[in-house]
Amino acid sequence: MADDTMMRERSALEAWAGLVRRRWRPGLAIFLLISALAAALVFLTRPVYRAEARLRLGEPPPMGGISPGGGFLALMRLGGDPFANDLELLGSRSLAETVVERLALHVKLDAGRGWHRDSLVVMVEAGRTNEKAAYEAEWTSDGLIRVRRVSPTDSAIGAVRPGETIAFDSVRVAFLPWREGMPRTAALRVEPFGLAVRRFRSALTLERARREANVLDLAYDHDDPGLARRIVAAAVEEFVALRAAVQRRESGETVDSLARVAAATIRELSVAESELAALQRRARLVAPDAQGEALIEQYATLSADLEQARLERDAAETLLRRVEAADTPGVGWAGLAAMPDLVEAPAVSGLVQRIEQLRAQRAELASRFAPGSRAVTVLDQQIRELDASLRNVATTYRDAVAQRERALAAEVAELEGELADLPAHVMELARLQRRIRILSEVLVLTEQRLRQEELRQALTFSNIQVIDPPALRYKPVWPRKKLGLAVGLLLASVFSTLGMAVAERADGTLRGAAMARELAGAPVLAAVTAGGGRIALGAAEARAILGAAGVPAGDVARLTLAPVDGAAPAGDLARALVERAEAEGAERAGAVASPPILFTTPPIEAYPAAAEAAAYGAPVVLVAEHGRTRRAALRAAVALLIEAGAAPAGVVLACPHQRDATTIWA
Fold first, then answer.
1. Which of 30, 71, 546, 636 supports an S-S bond with 496, CB 3.0-4.6 Å?
2. Is the pTM of this model over 0.85?
3. How many other CB atoms are found less than 10 A from the CB of residue 456?
4. What are the DSSP calls for 477-497, one per residue?
C-alpha cells in the first residue's frame, strides 16, 4: 500500500515536472506580468491614511413613567437600545450631508503624489446643488492662478491672486501661492452631492469596542491625511450636536405635550368641582351616610308624631260629637282632661271637675226642689257656662291638633320627597367625587411627569466622552508593502501554474503514447529521439518497430512509412531503419536490406501512394512528432488510410529530447 502511494506521488510529481518543462514559457510570462502588476500596485499606489477616534456614549437622561407599568415597559425597551440608536444616528444621512457640505468632500483636488488639499488651497467650499464637472487651476509665472473648466465644456473662468476667493458654479476656492517644488497645475473634480454623501456613509467605519461597553470606534480612510483627520473630527462634532438637538427636541415636545394635558386636566377638574358644589348646594349633601341616617331617623319621628296628632284629633272630634249628642249640657267632658296636651293643664282639669260637681249638686237639688226653682236654675246656668267654656277649649284643642297634623303631614311629605331623591343625589355625588378623584390623580401624575421632563430637559446635554481624540495612525494603512508583495508573488505563482495547466489543456498536439494509441486505433511501436536530421535508433527499437508491424528482420522493403504531417521525420526514420538493417545484414550472411516504401508527403496528399501500399500488402506505420503533430492531423491521416484500405499497423513517435522519449509512456 505504501509503495503504491509512493508510486502515485512520484508519478504526479513527474507529471508536474513534465508540465513545467513543456509550458515554462507561458508560465514564466504570466508570473512576471502579475508580479510586475503587484509591484506597481504596491509602489505606485498613493498611500491611504486612516484617522481614528474613540468615543464613550453615555446613557440618555432617564424617562419617567406615568403608570405603574412604566417600569415593566422600560424593561422591555420599547424605545430600543440607546447605543444602537446612537449608532443609527451616527450613520444617518443628515449627519453625512452636514459633514460632506462642511468639508466640501464632493470637491477633489489632485496635483500629483504627495500634494494634498492643505498644501494647495486656503479654503474650499461647495453647495449641495452641483453637477459633475472638472476644472484646472494653473499657477502662472506672474503670480496669478488661472482657473478654467475642462469638462463637460471647455471654458475659461478667471484668474485670482493667492488668498483671494474665486467662485464658479457652486464652488468657492482660495488658493495658496506657488512655491518651489510645487506643481504648476492642479485638477479639481466636482461630483454630485448625493454621490459624495453615499461614499462618505460607506467609508465611515463604526465598530463597538466590546459588547458590554458603550465605547465606539470611528475610522475613516483617505489618501489625504489632513482631510481624513478633519473628517473624523467633523463627524464627532456633528454627532454630538445632532444627538443633543434630537434629545432636546424630544424633551421639548414631551414637555409641551404634558403641559397641554395638565392644562386640559385642570379645566376638567374645575368643571367637575363646580358641578359637585352645585349638587351639594341643591341636595344639601355633605356627608351622605350621616345625613341619610339622620334623615331616616327624622322621618320616623315625624311619622310617629303625625300618627299621634291624628289620634288626638280623632279623640277630640269624638269627644265633641259625644258632647253634642248629649241631651243635657255638661255630659261627657271627663275625657277632655285626659287629652295628651291637656293632661297637665290645671285649668281644664278644674273646669271638668267643677262641671262634674255642679251636675252632682243639681242632681241633689233636683231631687228636693222643683225643676224651675231658683237654685236649680242657677246651677243650670253655671253648668251651661262651664259647658260652653269646655266646648270652646275642646274646639280650640281640636283645631290646634288638626293644624299640627297638617304641619307634620307637610314635613313628612317633604321628607318623603327628599328620601325619594336621595339615591339619585348620592349616585351623582359619588360619580362626581370619583371623577374628581381620577382627574386629581391624573393631574398629580401629569404634573410629576412634567416636572421630570423639565428636569430632564434641563439635564439634556451630549454626554459623550472623547476617549481618543481624532488622530492619524503612525503609518499608512495601504499599501502594505511586504504583505502586498507576498500576496502578489503568491497570486503570480497560482496564476502561472493555472496558465501552464490551461496552455497544456488547450494544446492540440500529441502528448503521450496513450493519446496516440487512442487516436490511431493502433499501438505505439516505439519512441525515438530525433534531432539534427538524424534519429537515434537502437537495435531493440528497430526490432520492435518491424516485429510489431509483422515484417521479418532485415526485410525493410515490405514496410511503408507515412508521415502524419510535414514536420514528422519519416525520411530520417527510414534511413535509420535501413542503416540498422544493413548492420544486421552484415552480421547475418545472405540477408538483403532494401529501403522501405516512404511517403514523403502526408497521407492526405499521397492518397494514390497509400492505395498502392495497400495493394502491395506492405504494412503502413505512421510517423508523428511528439509535441508538434496535431491530434486532428493524426485522426485525419488514420481516416484516409482506412478509406484507402491500408489500416495503420502502428505509430512511431519522434521526440525532440531524450527525456521525452522516456516519459511519453507515463
1. 30
2. no
3. 20
4. SB--HHHHHHHHHHHHHHHHH
